[in-house]
Amino acid sequence: MSIVAVLLASESCSRKTNFLTSTEVPAAQGDVKVTKSSNNNFEIKISIMHLAEPDRLKPPKETYLVWMETENNLTKNLGQIESSSGFLSKKLKASFKTVTPFNPVKVFITAEDETNIQYPRGIVVLSTGNF
Q1: What residues form DSSP beta bridges with 94?
Q2: Would you tell me how many other CB atoms lie within 10 Å of the CB of residue 28?
Q3: Which residue has the higher pLDDT, 91 or 40?
């Protein structure tokens, strides 16, 4: 198989979508890239800019959590958004990366008071449409 065919095959298993404009944090922008691996797992990469610190929200929150909805209508907590310098950098940039065996159909981010929760309780600050 040629290198071009391998690259095209790997890209065909990849989906990328932007987050919808948020009413809670309207300046926030970002995208989600989902790539299916050869072992049928899904790698999720998120990049976000202009996301305000969660303690600046009304009401203030402790953290941002990433969630996904699966093709089986399950909601999964994927983890907490962090940045390389403190919670968010001075430029308010953040990224997130994880691998899951579940096929995501939607990804969203909530502002929460706790990190170890099974279901979203807080405000949805960013969301994709369905992939």
Answers
A1: 48
A2: 19
A3: 40
